[in-house]
Write the structure tokens for this entry.
Amino acid sequence: MSGAALAILLPLAFFVAFPLFWMVVIGLIGKTGWRPLAEAYPAERWPARGYKVSWQSGRVGAVNYSNALNAVATPEGLFLRPSFLFRVGHPPVCIPWAAFVDTAPAMIFGTRFILETGPSLVLYGKLARAVTAALEARDRASGEYDAALEHESGGLPWEAAAETREPGRSRRGDRRRA
């Protein structure tokens, strides 16, 4: 084989082999924690409306998804799916609010959410605060999410608590100018 042909075939082989290798690895990772979660709580669709957060971190079972989760909180439940590069073998999930049984602090930061079935879920940052706020609203309203609750609070129950910050501070933490 000539040097010119080899110079063309090697990059071509890389651009074919690496994506296939990536898909196999991500698919295998998905089988450990995500697949049981998706089987327990399959999502029929991805919601168009709700409280959306992207590029969040969490852990499903033993697999850590650092800055790779997209979530939408709706009255129906919490929809989760990995970002585009990690979707192979990771179908979207919809965990109904009633499936959240208990919460506990995670080992290092974050909140562990114990579910009725499937692996536990550890969430961090804005996503953890949003889910905690939704569960607190569920507990206050005896699990009923309806238009009256939304109207009463001036928005969906998790929206206010998800954006909690110290009074007088902007979202970046700087003091607001008077």
